[in-house]
Design brief:
zinc; single chain; alpha+beta; phosphoribosyl-AMP cyclohydrolase activity; 127 residues; Phosphoribosyl-AMP cyclohydrolase; 16% helix; four-stranded mixed sheet; EC 3.5.4.19; magnesium
Length: 127
């Protein structure tokens, strides 16, 4: 890929054999990493069309709009692609919590099990 391709916005995402790429959602203001999910070409197209994050659920085998059930949507300010064009970074404005457990970030605990994240909603009241 040439530098000119990058400048014109014609970067082609490499979805590989699986048809999915990982996407990291990061708070656009604070830089906090909120979650990681997978994106299909259709999910990426919907994200670009609507300005809100869409992902592909591997367990349900379907596209999902982040926050469609909880109301905790992600407004996407920018989508970045890594140097190999096989990973995405969504810079987002997160409404509510990003994690289905009620935490702001899915990365709310250490390997030792210590909770280091903020719980921002009760999942029993939302789901």
């Amino acid at each position: 890929m040439s530098d000119a391709d990058a400048e014109t916005g014609s970067i082609e995402v490499d979805f590989g054999e699986s048809g999915l790429v990982p996407a990291v959602a990061q708070d656009a203001d604070s830089g906090e990493v909120l979650m990681l999910a997978y994106v299909s070409p259709e999910a990426l197209a919907r994200t670009r069309e609507t300005g809100e994050a869409h992902y592909y659920s591997r367990s349900r085998e379907e596209i999902w709009h982040k926050g469609s059930t909880s109301g905790h949507t992600q407004s996407v300010r920018e989508v970045r692609v890594d140097c190999d064009a096989d990973t995405l970074l969504y810079l987002v404005e997160q409404a509510g919590g990003a994690c289905h457990t009620g935490h702001r970030s899915c990365f709310h605990r250490t390997l030792d099990g210590e909770n280091v994240g903020e719980r921002v909603f009760d999942p029993d009241e939302v789901y």
